[in-house]
Each structure stands twice: as structure tokens, then as C-alpha cells.
Amino acid sequence: MKTSDRLKQTIALIDKANSEDPNKVSDGCGKEWPKELLYSVRMSDMLQRFAPKSDEVAQISMRGQHIQRWKSARNDYPMDRQGYLQWRTQLYKFHAQTTADIMQQLGYDEESIERVQNAIGKKGIKVNRDTQLLEDITDLVFIEHYMLAFAEKHPEYDEDKWLDIVRKTWRKMSAGAQQFALEGNITLPEPLVPLIQKAVS
Predict the structure, then answer these.
(1) Can you state the angle between helices 175-182 and 129-141, rounded to 10 degrees?
(2) CA-based Rg of the chain, rounded to a whole angstrom?
(3) pTM over 0.90
(4) Helical pair 159-172 and 193-200, crossing angle rounded to 10 deg
């Protein structure tokens, strides 16, 4: 992956922002990380595995997708479906603008900045290639690193509920990302493998 000095500076500033996350998590290998810094590193790692020739716009979008996410708490919004959607919409805008501000600071052109904002803002999924790539990486990272913890957090979900969750995630992915997952290029959460196989069969 060709990396310019400006890209390195951009990634460094995003990482610096995410390093301020007061929430700490383990990477499973004994190291503790600021939560969103670890997430952003996992996004970049998955992009390198899935689409190693991706341009700078894609690399910045992956790294900035959750930038400073902790600054907008879920409980700041009504704890219902409408409140959840309001929170998610605000997050998309916040992440997109925060990443755009860093790019402007480092002199990126308006077209590149707009592409990053559209991708992080989840605009045009299935028709915007940048947005679809971000969605693919998000879903692959979720399956490999976060799906099992999510399942453990919701023991009240029955099999039908889980089949629905897996199928909704699967439908958001491109055919290429689905094939990438099925070919064993990601580590599936072992306790959920039978459920995942049933959902996508």
C-alpha cells in the first residue's frame, strides 16, 4: 500500500484523537488500548487484507470512521428506536466532519475530502464505491472482532433474532466481501459458526 507523508500525518492525527478515548479495552493478546484507537487499527488492518491497493481516501475513511466516538453518548438521546436513529445520524455527521477537518488542515483537495465525508456519512451504500467499501470493512471487522461480545451482551436474543441480525449484516456486504468471509479470510467467532452458516446458507 503506497503511503504518502501527508497520509502518514493524517493517520497520526486521527490516532492522536482516538488515543484520548477514556474507555480502555483489551486486544485479546494482553495489551490494553483506548477503545476507538483499537477499532480504527482493526479497520485499517482489515482494509489491508481485503483491498490492499486501496487509495488514500479509503485508508483515511477506515481510520476515521469512529473518530472520538465517545464524545456522543447513546444515553444523550431518547432510549427508543427513534432516539437510536437520531444518535447514529449525528455520529455519521460528527465523524465525517472531524475527519474532514484534519484533511483540510493537511491540504487535501475538496474532492478527496468530499469522498471521505460521503463514505463516513454512509451516503449511497450499494451505489457509492467508497461507502460500500467502508461498509464491507465495518461488517468484516464486526464479525471477526465484535460479534461474539455482542452476543454475550444479549443473552435474551433467541435464534430467530440472531439469524435476522446476521442476515441483515450479510445483505449490507458486497458479493466480494461475502466471498472473502466465506473463503476463510477472517476468523469467525467459533461459538457462533453454526448460526452464521445457517443464516447465510
Answers:
(1) 20
(2) 17
(3) yes
(4) 60
Q: What is the mean pLDDT of residues 18-35?
A: 95
Helix H or strand E encompassing 106: none
The DSSP call for residue 155 is T
Q: What is the mean pLDDT of residues 177-197?
A: 92
Q: What is the dihedral sign for C-alpha 164, 165, 166, 172? A: positive
Q: Write the CB contacts of 41 (distance below 8 Å, at least 6 apart in sequence).
A: 33
CB atoms within 10 A of CB 8: 10
- What angle (nearest 5°) sits at the alpha carbon of residue 119, between those of residues 115 and 125? 120
Unique residue bearing C-alpha cell 477514556 = 22
DSSP 8-state code for residue 28: S
Residue whose grid cell is 467508497: 130
d(CA 58, CA 54): 6
What residue ranges do the domains of the chain occupy? 1-123, 126-201
Q: CA angle 5-41-100, nearest 5°?
A: 55
Q: At which residue does the C-alpha cell 440472531 appear?
A: 162
Q: What is the pLDDT of residue 3?
A: 59
What is the chain's percent helix, strand, coil content, to nearest 5? 70, 5, 30
pLDDT > 70: percent of the chain: 99
- Given a cut of 50, is residue 136 above it in pLDDT? yes
In this prediction, residue 195 has a pLDDT band, given cuts at 50, 70 and 90, of: confident
